[in-house]
Design a protein that fits this description.
With 151 residues, the protein is α+β, with helices and mostly antiparallel strands. The chain is built from 2 helices and 9 strands; from the N terminus they run E-E-E-H-E-E-H-E-E-E-E. The protein has a single domain, classed as Roll (Thiol Ester Dehydrase, Chain A).
Length: 151
């Protein structure tokens, strides 16, 4: 789904050719306040959501905090829903999220969640993906999202 909506700003990013903005119009919400700027693009049958880590995203080991990685993963489920299935990501909810941390994320380079849809039913969306930095695997995950009820 391209273009803006009442909830999302999703349009060509002026500074990142080939990418689109991924942000809520209300920048006082979790996504903007905690994760900061994010951009998204479709790569074949996958969605890539990118964030730009800052010092505030690090733990005492100067690596990306696990909660930030989990937050990126959760948001990526909805980015995939909107870009790959044209679903209404706003009122959908995460029902299940399973994550395996494999390596530490570094704060000096973008962190990407690459997601694919495994199956879509009338009410559910089954997804899986990886969190990567360049060719290094940071985490693997699978998730289940319940679509919004039809009114």
């Amino acid at each position: 789904m391209d273009g803006d909506s009442a909830v999302f700003d999703h349009r060509d990013h002026p500074d990142h050719p080939g990418w689109k903005t991924w942000r809520l119009r209300d920048d006082t919400r979790f996504n903007s306040v905690v994760l900061g700027e994010m951009i998204v693009r479709v790569e074949g049958d996958k969605c890539r959501l990118r964030m730009f880590p800052e010092r505030k995203h690090t733990n005492l080991q100067d690596m990306i905090h696990g909660a930030i990685t989990l937050s990126l993963i959760d948001v990526s489920l909805f980015a995939a829903m909107r870009t790959l299935t044209h679903g209404d990501a706003g009122p959908a909810v995460t029902l299940e999220l399973s994550t395996q941390f494999i390596g530490a994320g570094r704060p000096d380079e973008p962190l990407d969640a690459v997601v694919e849809v495994l199956r879509e039913t009338g009410r559910m969306l089954f997804l899986r993906g990886d969190v990567v930095q360049d060719d290094r695997l940071v985490a693997a995950f699978s998730g289940l999202v319940r679509k919004a009820s039809k009114k």
